[in-house]
């Protein structure tokens, strides 16, 4: 783990990005106190079915009042919605 002050971090950002890119963590400090971490990016991709399940759980109980979803193009028989669901491996 490397520690650098905020001024040094600003001045040497490209080299610090290379350090992080190589897997090392960089702690950025201000007046000797840690204020931020520069860490390598982790690539993750969630399963589309899991993402859709999370979205459905999140929207559970959310309504648009008296508005009908068919009137705004979000009905379950909507072609775009079905195509997206099919692309993600979810079938109605």
What is the gist of this entry?
The chain contains four helices and three strands; from the N terminus they run E-H-H-E-E-H-H.
Describe it.
The protein is α+β, with helices and mostly antiparallel strands and 92 residues long. The protein has 2 domains: 2-38, YefM-like fold, CATH 3.40.1620; 48-87, no CATH class. It is built from 4 helices and 3 strands, in the order βααββαα. The radius of gyration is 23 Å and the shape is elongated. It starts with a strand and ends in a 5-residue tail after the last helix. The mean pLDDT is 81.
The amount of beta strand, in percent, is 15-25%
Q: What distance separates the N and C termini?
A: 49 Å
Number of H- or I-type helical stretches: 4
Low-confidence stretches: none
SS content category: alpha+beta
Overall shape: elongated
Rounded radius of gyration (Å): 23 Å
The H/E string reads: EHHEEHH
Give the % helix.
25-40%
Largest sheet: 3 strands, mixed
Tally of distinct domains? 2
Widest beta sheet: strand line-up = 1-2-3
- Strands, total number: 3
Mean pLDDT: 81
Index terms:
3 strands, 92 residues, three-stranded mixed sheet, YefM-like fold, alpha+beta, 4 helices, elongated
